[in-house]
Amino acid sequence: MIPIHDNPGPRRSVPWMTWGLILANVLVFFYELSLGDAVQGFITVYGVVPAAISRGVPQTNLTPDPVYITLFTSMFMHGGWMHLIGNMLFLFIFGDNVEDRMGHIGYLIFYLLAGLVAGLTQVFVAPDSLVPSIGASGAIAGVLAAYLVLFPWSGVRTIVFIFIYFTIVTVPAVLLIGLWFLLQLFDGVAGLAHTQQGMGGVAYFAHIGGFVFGLLITMLLKNRLQPPAPITYPPFARHPNAQGPIRWY
């Protein structure tokens, strides 16, 4: 299922931070493309290598010191066009309203911490792996979890593929994101043997770690966040006897 549009209600502010994060990821990806064959070395230097993190020793002489900095640099790197487009699509659709509720700075801190926890979760699962992990998926998983808590019944227009056919349906966020998480959990457990052997593939446990972090933090802070923006009639649609804004329920 591929989300293409959501309808959680109006925002109070322009999602500058979400757009800025998308721009940063795109710019880093284009820099990766400019490196040509040297991109693998770039990934090894700035990606999260579990063995290097667990031992606290940089993987190469060029790796940032302390090596834990790679837990942040890896969040802005991607392994291909589909990896980048998929992540940025989810961030674009679900990030703006989460940012609106958390505030720009709070949202950025939340995003980075979710990515940090995601990286550490992958290290915990495979502490001796020499395979570098990259991508914004762990941080975005935290954003998805926050959206699930804050806008569970928001309608999400989604492309659903059925074999060679596809259709577009509107499903509640709780169903779409819930199924996404269950898929990560299932695939993560199914591929655990490969992960522990240090083989490449999708870092499912990073997704799981970021999601669980986002879920717990948002549930704890939900009552302290900004309330949803009220929905009002446009001026031409107001009842002639109505005074001021009117909320729709």
UniProtKB/TrEMBL annotation:
Membrane topology: Multi-pass membrane protein
Gene Ontology CC: membrane
Cited Gene3D superfamilies: Rhomboid-like (1.20.1540.10)
Compartment annotation: Membrane
SUPFAM superfamilies: Rhomboid-like
GO biological-process terms attached to the record: proteolysis
Keywords: Cell inner membrane, Cell membrane, Hydrolase, Membrane, Protease, Transmembrane, Transmembrane helix
InterPro entries: Peptidase_S54_rhomboid_dom, Rhomboid-like_sf
Domain of life, source organism: Bacteria
Coiled coil stretches, renumbered: none
Transmembrane segments: 13-31, 69-93, 105-124, 130-151, 158-182, 202-221
Main localization, broad class: membrane
Domain Peptidase S54 rhomboid residues, every copy: 69-222
Molecular-function annotations in GO: serine-type endopeptidase activity
Name the record gives this protein: Membrane associated rhomboid family serine protease
